Amino acid sequence: MTSPGNDTLYVATGGGMGPETIAALEAQMEAMVPDQQSYLIVATDKDKAGDRYAKMIFELAFENCVRYVRALPEGEATDFNQALQERFAASNAARTVVA
Question: Which residue stretches of the chain have pLDDT < 50?
Answer without folding.
Answer: 2
